[in-house]
Amino acid sequence: MPLVRLPAGLRVSVTVVTLVVLVVIYVPLLLVLLNSFNTDRTFGWPPPGYTTHWWSLAWHSEGARDALFTSVRVALAATAIALVLGTLAAMGLRRTRFFGRNVVSLLIILPIALPGIVTGLAFQNGFRTILGLQLSLWTIVIAHATFCIVTVFNNVQARFARLGGNFEQASMDLGAGPFTTFRLVTLPMLRSALLAGGLLSFGLSFDEIVVTQFTASSTDRTLPIWIFQNLFRPNAAPIVNCVAAALVLFSVIPIYLAQRLSGDAAEAMTGAR
Amino acid sequence: MVGAGSPAISVRGLSKHYDQVRAVHGLDLDIEDGEFFSMLGPSGSGKTTVLRLIAGFEPPTAGTIRLGDEDVTDRAPYDRDVNTVFQDYAIFPHMSVLQNVEYGLRVKRVAKPERRRRAEEALATVRLEGYAARRPHQLSGGQRQRVALARALVNRPKVLLLDEPLGALDLKLRREMQVELKEIQREVGITFVFVTHDQEEALTMSDRIAVFNDGRIQQLATPVELYEQPASAFVAGFVGTSNLLDGQVAKELVGEDGTFVIRPEKLVMHAEDGAPAADGNTAVAPGVVREVVYLGASTHSVVELDAGATLTVAHQNTDRSIDAALERRQQRVVLSWRRDHLVALGRAPDPETPSPEEES
Amino acid sequence: MSLISRRPGLRVGLLLTPPMLWLGVAYLGALAALLVTSLWAQNDFTGNIERTWTLDNFRDLFTIEVYRTITLRTIGIATLVTVVDALLAFPIALFMAKVASPRYQRLLVIAVLMPLWASYLVKAYAWRGMLSSNGLVESIASPFGLGTPGYGLLATTMTLAYLWLPYMILPIYAGLERLPNSLFEASADLGAGSWTTLRRVVLPMVFPAFVAGSIFTFSLSMGDYIAVKIVGGTSQLLGNVVYDNQGAANNLPFAAAMATIPIVVMLAYLAAARRTGALEQL
Amino acid sequence: MRRTPSRGITVVAGAAVLLLGMAACGTDSGDDDKSGGDNPGSEGFTPPDVPMLESLGDPEGQVNILAWPGYAEDGSTDETVDWVTPFEEASGCQANVKPFGTSDEAVQLMKTGEYDVVSASGDATLRLIAAGDVAPVNTDLIENYADISPFLKDQGYNSVDGQMYGVPHGWGANLLMYDTETVSPAPTSWAAVFDDASQYAGKVTAYDSPIYIADAALYLMNTQPDLGIKDPYALDEDQLAAAVEVLKAQKENVSEYWSDYLKEIQAFKQGDTVIGTTWQVIASLAQSEGAPVEAFLPDEGSTGWSDTWMISSKSKNPNCAYAWMDYIASPDAQAQVAEWFGEAPANPKACDSVTDDTFCETYHVSDADYAAQIHYWTTPIEQCLDGRTDVKCTDYGDWTTAWTEIKG
Questions:
Q1: How many angstroms separate the CA of residue C182 from the nearest CA in chain D?
Q2: Is the pLDDT of residue B160 over 90?
Q3: C278: exposed, middle or buried (Cβ count in 10 Å: 0-12, 13-18, 19+)
Q4: Long-range contacts: B238-242, Cβ < 8 Å, 24+?
Q5: Which residues in D lie closer than 8 A to residue A230 (C-beta atoms)?
Q6: Does residue B75 belong to the interface with chain C, where contact is any CB pair within 8 Å?
Q7: Sign of CA dihedral A182, A185, A191, A193
Q8: Which of A270, C259, D241, D368 has the most CB atoms around it within 10 Å of its CB?
């Protein structure tokens, strides 16, 4: 990609600010990493000593592991639902200019545009007060899927916009019915967009705390809930730091994949919340 | 040209309205078997809509479409024995050239060896042997165009629809492909329905041409008829350069009321003193050269007649130097033409009334 | 089958039905139920919700002054966080989109996204540590004769701005990346200095991206109740009132009434954002 | 109640003097007939006739336990923290533990009949008894019951007319903690965080919950007898207003309100805070982290909590449920829970099993006088808990609103 030759002054100032901001972004994260080795159970500053004790505890923590699996399960289920609904919505709105188009777009954006506390409270109230249901893993999944739809929708819509509309027509023209066309043409062409959208949706669900707090029963502990419960216990807080540090390190993989797959960095990330 | 039995495509009373816009209005059309048929018109004239209606991408507002003996009006695209070459080719980016070409056979569950054989045959037809394993993004524009063609031809459809397939190619390639397309059509014997806005393209390739404007056919004729005897000022203007004589000018120069057209190459330009005299066969008119445009093979001069009209005169740059022509700018000249080269258009076309009679 | 492909309306209908059922019925239904709940009362003895209609919750909301104070404070903080993030995000997004080489571009995107995976809580606690009396901020600031701002609204603003920064960087980066490079050249060619180019050409064109990012930063700040507990000292935001009422006090109807405030604010915000075309860039 | 900070909810547990309407103390064990006033459930409170288990049979093979997080640890959070597995091995009852987040949730879940036992707090116990969701407990069938501290037995929040409805689990007090290096002389009264708080302006901390209003009410009870506060959980509007005034004045000097261990320990260690309310467990942890702090029960007494294990009236596994209640009251289990959770065990014999020799002294496990100074957390309701009938008291909703206003 040809780069713009920005004037030197602007270039330098932009670079300097970028470096400063990057430092500010990473200092707290490094601090988390450092504290995971801090002998002080309440991360006193400066650290009185260093130990790998917490990492070994974290490694053996069944609660953390269970919470991790719960989070993965919830995120996978929510992502699966979001993939289906987001793709359907994007396909429905494609090439269509019906009166409700804006309404539908707004509706898809709304769950992520409203604060999590609103979405969480609305679902909790809906499930418990109105429907009289017990909160469970499924209530978390439903709530998460709701705000994950937008990431899939955005990615698929961007892909559609880039592809243009003739491929499916070409397929139908060559004798393939709608389902064959979807299987052989639409889906393969959407694959990377779906993967990117799915990964974002997974990440979104995986780290969600607010909506989860409202829609989780007390037995269903996702990783953020586990962190929330344990961060405040002096004996467990350093373990939490280990888990958080490990999460940051491992997060490189999905982010890298998402970016790779989508091919277009901007598209991969829009809606990256 | 007219074959025996029912036409390949028969359209009756076809209309397509989008809200207030009438893209196609009350169209009747027969396209014969094995014909190379072109639909020519400016953008928005409805020609592409007719193509999409025939392909089945959109349902008509009214009217019927028959393919051979079958009424296909309500059938889905995949239920019609027609294939389309898209303007942007719509080659599946995630498949190789071979997979693209095989696609139609694959969804029809043709056995693999058979499908491979036919695909290779089709690639040979479009002179793309050896490209089977390529990916679409590794192909040039012309090659993609051929893949699209092969992908459609391999299904041996009754009718092949081509939606401005040469539009994206550069001029030289376009000329080559025009000839090639025509050859391929002769070779496979399939009815081609070709949509274009390029009059030269249409004239080069077609057996018959339908000129579209405002959702209607203005004239349906062979290329020669279309050029030599345009039915309306619109057709005359769209196909070739039109030199119109109407109103007072017509009265003065032709001697009768009406609108007349004469092609630029039928006009002869003389120096003021060397002009022939008008007689029963020849008409003359003096004027001033306002502009001279050098076009390589020929030169166009724009002459403002004293009578009021402005006519374009074309002359081949054969043996003599073109300097003489260029020096005539702003000079007085006399134009002459054979009276029988003048085509009477009748009244100026009114969009609300049907265009002059289509061929029956 | 054939029917579906022949009737676009039917096709759209079939495609949109599942997502619309989910969002329109389940989600909007839940929001509507929340509004309904806000019109109910709570039994003081059992803590159970009594399904009798009352406007008491809203009366309290409007008459008790502290709620107005908290609402204004929350909107103020959310605005401040958004402005800070916009100021910080623009240079880094510009660097990513128009200065960095493609390789660095990819690395930078990862670098910006990575913090999002570190737990929100852990990061907030890291800031608590940095802002404490003898913490990192103090040790960095003391040579300049400054100190830590301590726990309070300033600390809350800093922490929230930190937490949501990636949500602002990414849309602006995406917006800038879409800008053709020739624009910069055209502007320079027409004699504009770099600042003029930024102000007259780039900023107006990426403004929708700013708005898109601000929806996140603003909305996330509007609803926060955890970070403010960790670094906010004695201060509280709207989210705390909602949270305390649904949890501690078990007064769901009042929590629901309180939750209508961020809904109204965000709907107004979205309506304004829609005019800029920002919703297309979310 | 401190419970898991996870739900932040921390409301409310506590011992309800709901029935008795007695001011204070709860030391008058067994004195149920003293109950007076016509606040609801007080006079003429007759619990539904729920049969009591007469004799033990064979264990059913499982027991469903509804517990505050930390009360029934099975090693899933920390491998070394596990007193459920030994129970399963000894009793042959598989224990299915479900932690709950709030007392309301516990009450709701108990109504399903799917749980056999519950660790109920003071604001849940009476509701469960009155609704017939829990059965009287035949304490004769519980071997370890005899060892439970007498001052926890036959209390208004765990018994009706001398009939126990549960087995006491543990209790604790809200203490005053201060930085020994900065705060001098050592304080003796809650005045240090109220009237004298300005001495430590910007360095005072307080518990972040509406229930903390009771601390101010308790202080007023002693300093302003004119207000007529007899029970810190029974405040009429004027009394609440007075408490709010105290807290608003205090807020000027507060650095931050704390809601979890870590936050408070950090604040004391870093010197952001030098004085404020605390729990014994936090004080001990802070000390072990090297913070120069002391925590004590001030002269006025303090607020606190006390929990009880109860058995469902619909229990399908009564024998295993009794086995659990017996087990959790045993010295070993009590020691583990108390040390892990940080509260005084109901069974003083646990003191022989705790790993920390000073634990029982620190937590005043057998100290009846100490326990007598605690006003156990109770949910304030409209009917005055102190027996007054001429005024309406403020309920927890009012307290929540007041707390929001105090914080501003």
A1: 53
A2: yes
A3: buried
A4: B238/B40, B238/B41, B238/B42, B238/B199, B238/B211, B238/B213, B239/B40, B239/B199, B239/B202, B239/B203, B239/B209, B239/B211, B240/B199, B240/B264, B241/B300, B241/B312, B241/B314
A5: 77
A6: yes
A7: negative
A8: C259
ipTM over 0.90 threshold:
no
The tokens for C98 are 């128009």
Counted across chains C and D, CB pairs separated by less than 8 A come out at 98
pLDDT at A9 over 80: no
pLDDT tier, D312 (very low <50, low <70, confident <90, very high otherwise): very high
Q: Which residues of D touch C134 (CB under 8 A)?
A: 270-271
Helix residue ranges, H only, chain A: 8-35, 53-60, 62-93, 101-113, 116-124, 137-163, 166-173, 178-181, 187-206, 210-215, 223-231, 237-262, 265-269
Which amino acid, D255?
Answer: S
Pick the CATH number of C55-281 from 1.10.3720.10, 3.30.70.20, 3.30.1060.10, 1.10.357.160: 1.10.3720.10
Asked if residues A159 and C68 have their Cβ atoms less than 8 Å apart, the reply is no
**Cβ separation of D262 and A233 shorter than 8 Å?**
yes
pTM over 0.90: no
CB D350 within 8 A of CB D145: no
Report the range out of B83-92, B343-352, C56-65, C194-203 with the highest average pLDDT.
B83-92
Tokens, residue C68: 């107005």
Interface probe with A: pick from D66, D103, D112, D262, most Cβ of A within 10 Å? D262
Total domain count, chain A: 1
Q: Which residues 95-154 of chain D have a CB within 8 Å of chain C?
A: 102, 104, 127
Closest by CA position to A241, among listed A21, A11, A45, A28: A28
Residue B76 has pLDDT above 50, yes or no: yes
> Rounded to whole angstroms, how far apart are CA atoms B52 and B164?
12
Q: Which domains are delineated in chain D?
A: 9-172+304-376 (3.40.190.10), 173-302+389-407 (3.40.190.10)
Neighbouring-strand partners of residue B65? B11
Tokens coding D56: 């033990």
Q: Decide if B79 and C6 are in contact by the 8 Å CB cutoff.
A: no
Mean pLDDT over A123-140 rounds to 85
Torsion of CA C146, C150, C155, C159, to 10 degrees: 90
Question: Taking CB atoms and an 8 Å limit, are C121 and A209 in contact across chains?
Answer: yes
Structure-token match 């879409």, residue found: C178
The CA distance from C5 to C11, in Å, is: 7
Matching residue, tokens 């539908």: A104
Give the 3-state secondary structure of residue D199: helix
Six-digit token string for A83: 């993939």
- Both tokens of D63, joined, read 């027991």
CB contact under 8 A, C223 and A115: yes
Q: Is the CB of C2 less than 8 angstroms away from the CB of B59?
A: no
Question: Per DSSP, which regions of chain B are E strands?
Answer: 9-18, 21-31, 36-40, 62-67, 70-71, 82-85, 159-163, 191-196, 208-213, 216-221, 244-245, 259-261, 268-271, 282-294, 298-305, 310-316, 332-338, 343-346
- Interface mutation target, options B72, B107, B151, chain A, most CBs of A under 10 Å: B107
CA-nearest residue to C8 within chain B is B58
Residues of A in contact with C184 (CB under 8 A): 4, 6
Shortest CA gap D111–chain A (Å): 13
Query: Domains of chain B by range and CATH?
Result: 9-233 (3.40.50.300), 238-344 (2.40.50.100)
Alpha carbon of C32: minimum distance to chain D alpha carbons (Å): 24
Q: Do B315 and B267 meet the contact criterion of CB atoms below 8 Å apart? A: no
- What per-residue confidence (pLDDT) applies to D30? 35
Q: How confident is the model at residue B65 (pLDDT cuts 50, 70, 90)?
A: very high
Question: Shortest Cα distance from D99 to chain A (angstroms)?
Answer: 6
